[in-house]
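How a chain folds remains the central question behind the approach discussed here. The record that follows shows the chain in one-letter code together with its fold in token form:
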Amino acid sequence: MAAVGDSKGVIGKTDSEDQGRFDSGDETANSSIEHPFSDPEIADRWRKVYENAQYENRHRFDPSFTWTAQEEKKLVRKIDFRICLWAWVMFLSLDFHRRNINRAISDNMLPEVGMNTNDFNYGQTSNELPIRLAFFWTALSTSNILGSLLAAGILQMRGVLGWGGWRWLFLLEAIGTFIIGLFSWVLMPPGPCQTKSWFRGKNGWFNEREEYIMVNRLLRDDPSKGDMNNREAVNLSKLWKAVKDWEQWPLYIIGLMVYIPPAPFNTYLSFILRQIGFSVFEANLLAIPSQFLYAVNLLIITWLSERVKERGMLSSLSNIWIFPWVLALVVLPGDISPWVRYALITGLLSYPYCHAILVGWNAKNSNSVRTRAISAALYNMFVQTGNIAASNIFREDDQPLYRRGNRVILGITSANIVLFYIVKAFYVWRNKVRDARWNALTKEQQQDYILNTTDEGQQRLDFRFAH
């Protein structure tokens, strides 16, 4: 849920209401249905907010503007092609460059640089967001698949100019990343009304009507998306204010813990395969099946989450999936076939990645541009901290089977499953507390609160947490 109130006071929609608006299949349905700015008083209040914030798209804000569902779907496809596709390419480039080290260690990189596995560790509209994020993160599996294919060939260059194959791998993939970075610098616009440039064309990507649709659909989804401009920095007081939004912290804790179990296997897959008898070439190609299944499961679980409007329980499936595979690695004897061990790790790494759901969940519960920007950064910091911790689970004295590390991962996986349900219960409880306080107000008091409160973001009494 997003927010509550009567037909005039509502500043948001429940998940089911939002889904029904454009998923009904009615191509003649338009934007004239009830929305946050239907009440002129509320529209005037937000118009002043956008003006004071110097919101860059405020000249396209129009509470009376209407458009058809067919127009919107056509525009969303255009945005997906213009923005999302290139963002996916950027993600692909990023993951090529940051994941190639996982393949380089299959080519004797660690001993050549004087390291062992103890030294090798490193960190690293609201309803439409998760499925598009899922699309972005298929770049991770795509980069791993393409990267494994490239590595299988490039690592054969060992000895050319006296270099190790892993050095050529780093160089050639870095060149590709650099080229994509240059294109991104001139290709990506700062906002929907700022697409005109020498590189993108003098007429830009969108006409005036399309700009009106883009701006108003975003603001009607969440009016707070215009309470800052895209040139405004977050100062220390606003930063501290966002950090103090304590009800966001359960999601940060999930971000810290949830990706720890698969991370060591993902990092060391090719290394483990080399240790149990596979060649460099085989170790890189054998990483491909798990990455393909991973991408499929990522899209399925994210689509399902948006379809049924469930986040906590469906996200827990990521660690529920991992549990039996890790359990098998813990209890099976050490002399099992290398192919059986490979199959178990492949099954584990095919888990339904819930990152898109959690990032969308984090954004939805932020309920303001300020909090959303900072909470996204904080969430990512916790995720990277978890990655740093995960990279220290497999130790030199525990290889090649890492039986002690597997037991540690089994314990963390079990705790994570419970954690998801605790966090869901927490947000259900917080919503009930707010319901009781909101319902204790009269209709007049509720309307006065909506128009005059100084509460912001998730601290607003009429806001409800998604879970």
Observations:
- The first helix runs from residue 15 to 22.
